[in-house]
Amino acid sequence: MPNCRDLGWVFVAYVACVAAALGVLYVVPWPAPWDAFAADIAATVVIFGFSRGLRNSSMYDPYWSVIPPLLAVYWMYSYPAAMESARAWLVMGLVWFWAIRLTANWTVNWPGLHHEDWRYPMVREGAGKAAMWADLGGIHVFPTVQVFLGCLPVYAVMRFGTGPLGWLDAVAFALTFGAILIEMFADLQLHAYLRRRQPGGIINEGLWAWSRHPNYFGEVAFWWGLMLFGLVVSPQSWWWLVPGALSMTVMFVFVSIPMMDKRSMQRRPAYAEHMRQVSGLVPLPPRRA
Q: Which intervals of the chain form a coiled coil (predicted)?
């Protein structure tokens, strides 16, 4: 767990970014949800400034889970009818549960400002002289846009979801809540394993025996669950409700998982065989030799 000084910098950075977002919401007279998008980008730029000043782009990491619950609160406040909607409160609870759990997991396991995610230097080094712009665009702005797209179903629920709950809401709840539990147990199992692992070892127990990245599966499923809530209240809006969850899936399947697997193969000789036996994302019975 990081020391108080490092956590203090994180606290200051996120207070500053939320203040910047509120300032944009007050000044920019754009219609919803574009006002929130402008505020989101402004907050991201503030975090980018702290990342550059502290020479650590992992300052951005908790942004992924800190901003969505604030967006949910803002959109509920913007549409008073949502205050009387059981669906709106259900989605609000799910988003806050996911956000608190994921942020707490990051806080407890973040080593501190001396540590930066190993992927970020690769992004900057690959950009050469454009390293700063790669940092801003690839590490900060791109995931902000992606998460904002993923949150648009929450906006739809707050704006349009005043009707009674139905069976599709039950399916959406089961998917979203189940996804959070999968991600939570995957993280707990991973950190328990890391405390007792042997050099070169590979986690292949619990959820990790059925998926090489069950935490990623839980994260992807969470966004699809939110998307389903959005489709319940506004099915004709599928064209702007689906892209968020779809982009999450594409990112994890074609970027995050290949990068993690490649690194694991370089560090663990037996990992190639592990990849042959265990599903990459969706939990499935392992294939035995």
A: none
